[in-house]
Amino acid sequence: MANLNPYLNFPGTTEEAFNFYKSVLGGEFLTLQRFKDTPEGNKVSPEDAEKIMHIALPIGNGSILMATDALESMGQKLIVGDNISLALEAHSIEEAENLFNGLSAGGKVTMPLEKAFWGAYFGILTDKFGIQWMINFDDNK
């Protein structure tokens, strides 16, 4: 079965929040990627370019706390309370497809499950109960 991890969205304060979480929870960041380091990095303002596109901090037994900065310049509107997603890390492309198709039934697909620029299969959906899910399968691991 896929691993379940919380994914948080912040209004430009991801780096500050995760430095705090790291000071409390310990560990080292697995990933820290800024918007400037993405293929679309040249399309954001210099201020937004320094914001966090993706960060990951291992916590507990195999869980990873992850986050991003929601950029209003990219049409992202952060609403406190709706800024948490559940991220499933699938163990195969078939499992990712089954999870994505099952959870999206009766819901809304935000981003179809497809190969993302970082090389993994990734998609975002909101299920019929209003919960946002992120499905990821990285065959490079």
Can you characterise this structure?
The longest helix is centred in the first third of the chain and has 12 residues, at 14-25. An eight-stranded mixed beta sheet has the order 2-3-4-1-5-8-7-6, with helices on one face. A hairpin with a 5-residue loop joins strand 6 and strand 7 (121-126). It is of the alpha+beta class and 141 residues long. It is globular, with a radius of gyration of 15 Å. The chain has helices spanning 14-25, 46-49, 93-104, and strands spanning 3-10, 31-34, 52-59, 63-69, 84-89, 108-115, 121-126, 132-137.
| Spans where pLDDT lies below 50 across 5 or more residues | none
Shape descriptor reads globular
Major sheet characteristics: 8 strands, mixed
Strand content: 35-45%
Structural class: alpha+beta
Number of strands: 8
Give the helices and strands as they follow along the chain.
EHEHEEEHEEE
Strands across the major sheet, in which order? 2-3-4-1-5-8-7-6
Q: Supply Rg.
A: 15 Å
Mean pLDDT: 91
Cα-to-Cα separation, first versus last residue: 16 Å
